[in-house]
Model the fold of this input.
Amino acid sequence: QLIAADKMLGFLDLHYYGYYTVLMPCLIVESIGLTHSTYLLKDILVKVAGIDTSQEPEEKKMKKDFLYYARVALSISAVIFSAVFIIKGLAMNQTNANTGAGWNKLPGYAAVIVGLLFLFIMACSEGLQVSA
Done:
């Protein structure tokens, strides 16, 4: 991906295409609060590590008002809701992960383990991409 970054097939040359297809959807999702569960994780890790946040620059400090915590609650609720239904569907053989071609004999618990393994590999790959 990094090697092909300069060969974006003219995507950036199209006027306002990236604005309406990438930037605006990202800003909408961010303003709704569906990505705020990571902020709670950051707050917990800051407390556990004992990091002093009083030295933060003012322009980077987040206002932790009612809307901040409401967005965090919405985000965590969405993550839990999604996880419950995905794991339930895998465990009860309600998806093609258990009934598709080549997977007919895969038990539900194994489908959950394989799904978590794939998720772990994908997260590690994403972390490597960000760090590169």
The two ends are 11 Å apart (CA to CA). The chain is about 65% helix and 0% strand. Helices lie at 17-32, 37-49, 66-91, 96-99, 108-131.
